Amino acid sequence: MAARQFVLGTAGHIDHGKTSLVRALSGVDTDRLPEEKRRGITIELGFARWQPSDELEVGIVDVPGHEALVRTMVAGAGGIDAVLLVIAAEDGVMPQTREHLHVCELLGLRHAVVALTKIDRLEGGDEREELLELACEDVREALAKGPFAEAPILPVSAHSGQGMAELRAALTSLARQVRTRGRKGPPVLPIDRVFTMRGHGTVITGTLLSGEIDLGKSATQDKSESAPELDLIPAGYGRRRRSLRLRGMQVHGGEARRSRAGTRTALNLGNVSVDELARGDVISQGHKVVASDRVLALVEQLGFGQRPWARDTSLQLCAGTASTAAHLVPLALEDPETGVLLDPRPRAPKPEIGPGQRGLVRIYLDTPLPIWAGQRVILRAYSAAHANVEGLTVGGGVILDPLPERRHPLRRVALARALLSEDPAERATALVVDAGMVGADAETIAVRANIAEPGKLLARLSGPRGPLLGLAGGRWVERGLLDELVRAAIAEAERYHQQQPLRAGVPRATLEAALPGHPAPELARAAIELALERGALRVADRSGSLARPGKGSLDPDALPEAMQAMLDLYTKGGVTPPTLRQISQRLDLDSKRVLEYAGLLQRNGLLVRVSDDLSYAAAAHASLLVRVREHLAAHGEIDVQALKDMSGVSRKFAVPFMEHLDHLGVTRREGDRRLPGPKREA
């Protein structure tokens, strides 16, 4: 059975002994840069593996404590389950200690152990105990109003080893009891280092936040065999999402076949160079992570801020291992008592999020970042003038929608409430309803509603009694929209009949285009098919025009005068009818009007079109067709001359009529003669 994976992150002021404590716990020196060795501080993220037992494996993230490097600390804290808060007994709680605490709280961390370090430097005797007691009180006071109020405080010395056994026991107990943070779904690994290894090529490192990465076949496999592929979601402009080939893997510094969420992972990647990757990029699979330059988020300003966040407030957003300038547009405030987002009031002042308040914001990013729904982010000020009294970290929050659409404020608030739900069905339904007539596909629902595998869920929601309707083409809409569009199609057909009383019906494409709300083509087609099924519409002619029952048909006894005159000419002409041009001249009608009337008479069965310029009155056409069929039955064939002889027409009429017979299937051509076709019988 695989060991339980747990990620522990350090937090605390510079030079309070975080790296020394990690080395005492794990035996690993997490300072890897020469500058870190020289200056005695952690600049980049450091990582160590500590295995207290066969059943438990703890990955320790040693983050920098220097104030200027808090962004790096955010990158490391994004994937941890609990905090090892390191505070030097001789210094107590410092500004960076408090800022680290705020960052951990904003990232959703709720469990911690406090190591009161460097106790070997305190003076001996009674004064030592008194100093330790004062230091503990100082820590307890700093933690009193946050989620770490009940965290154990353990005096330790990494140098002498005093208290280390108790610290190991407390951390082991915490790692076994605390439920690890949500790690199901596709793999997500923010890149924090990119480098080249001789003999291996490009390597990236990061902490796997969710899912698993499996190496699959042997790394020594033949190049012709397929290697596991991962997706690169780049930060910034100028690069596109692409597939990468996985060649090898290390977990916590050792060769591995599989990496699970919560582990420190290094990936050896093929088909990509170091120059094509950067810190801040994300490795993933599927559609969970997207590159986005605008997000919908629920944010909180820390209670020590100097000014409220108004429209276009500019801050720095830190997400995973990436960061960029961000511009906030507050949309709604959260009720501090109920925790519910308040609807914006008409003509009320634009909402502002003040110190200690939470609210819904739309955030515009200067450069696209790899983002996913449910991701925790940190907001930092650019200067002390805009910061709070305890550092440049001014707030943070959670991404609700990584690809928000433009919507009315009330609709955005309603959608945000649903996206905050723990129920994936509620989130998916809300997104589909918000998409309106256009609908949403499974990929969009997966990304925006943070649902790893939406297929089964959507199948259930689009069942006979479900709120959604699945359309051909893989889109879903709110079920009630179908009936709404059926009613609209009926109304549009009625309007068309009023405006075009002589036409058989409205062309199908015209009706689909006239439906309100610009529905997805699949939805428009489904609505019209349902109207036909219910008998609310009917197919009016061979072209597929649609009409209401009892409408769209010409009354032969009440034709318009010009149309009746036109039909009389065709009837009088018999088997030698006039051409369209002749009718236009005889009746002094515009050629377009003649063509329109001919089409209406044809669609209503009063004329039969033989060629572009030749039509027969229905009775004359039927009579000649009967004679042709009789001739075929008697002689087994017919040609142009035989048709001329039996009907008394000239070649001008016989040739197009014979071609018309071929088209109908009454005859089939073989050289200069026609043999009986598949529809030779009436």
From TrEMBL:
Q: Supply the SUPFAM superfamilies for this chain.
A: EF-Tu/eEF-1alpha/eIF2-gamma C-terminal domain, P-loop containing nucleoside triphosphate hydrolases, Translation proteins, Winged helix' DNA-binding domain
UniProtKB keywords: Cytoplasm, Elongation factor, GTP-binding, Nucleotide-binding, Protein biosynthesis
A molecular-function term among this protein's GO annotations: GTP binding
**Compartments in which it is found:** Cytoplasm
GO CC, sorted alphabetically, is: cytoplasm
GO-annotated biological processes = selenocysteine incorporation
Q: Looking at the record's lineage, which domain of life comes first?
A: Bacteria
| Transmembrane feature ranges | none
Q: Which InterPro entries match?
A: EF-Tu_GTPase (IPR050055), Elong_fac_SelB-wing-hlx_typ-2 (IPR015190), G_TR_CS (IPR031157), P-loop_NTPase (IPR027417), SelB_WHD4 (IPR015191), T_Tr_GTP-bd_dom (IPR000795), Transl_B-barrel_sf (IPR009000), Transl_elong_EF1A/Init_IF2_C (IPR009001)
Which Pfam families does this UniProt record tie to the protein? GTP_EFTU (PF00009), WHD_2nd_SelB (PF09106), WHD_3rd_SelB (PF09107)
Would I find Nucleotide-binding among this entry's keywords? yes
Which residue numbers delimit the Tr-type G domain? 3-178
Which NCBIfam families does this chain map to? selB
Question: Which protein, by its recorded name, is this?
Answer: Selenocysteine-specific elongation factor
Q: Record the organism.
A: Enhygromyxa salina
